Amino acid sequence: MQIPKWTQPALLGACAGAVALAIVGFNWGGWMTSTSAADMSNDESKAAVAMVLTPYCVQKSENDPLAAGVLAELKDANGYKRRGIVEKAGWATPLGADKPDRDLAEACQIALDDA
Description:
The protein is mostly helical. The protein is about 75% helix and about 0% strand.
């Protein structure tokens, strides 16, 4: 049995087209792997939880008798230490949690700066 001469160029063209389609799809077409989708979903859910709990954190800061000192320390602190101050004050610890939430502390210190 003889294979037609056009078979090899056709197969090479199909392979090149598949590779090009994959490159375009993953880079510009919005395709993603399941791991990337799961990571994106986790990031979005953490951001949503922080957004919902930010008023709780601000309310905790308003009810804290030591808030004036903590807010003064927060105002004088560098950018990378600010989240730690809110975490140490306990304002970013949700009910029932053992440790503070980093995303909530970040959102809370931003909200406290705006207030």
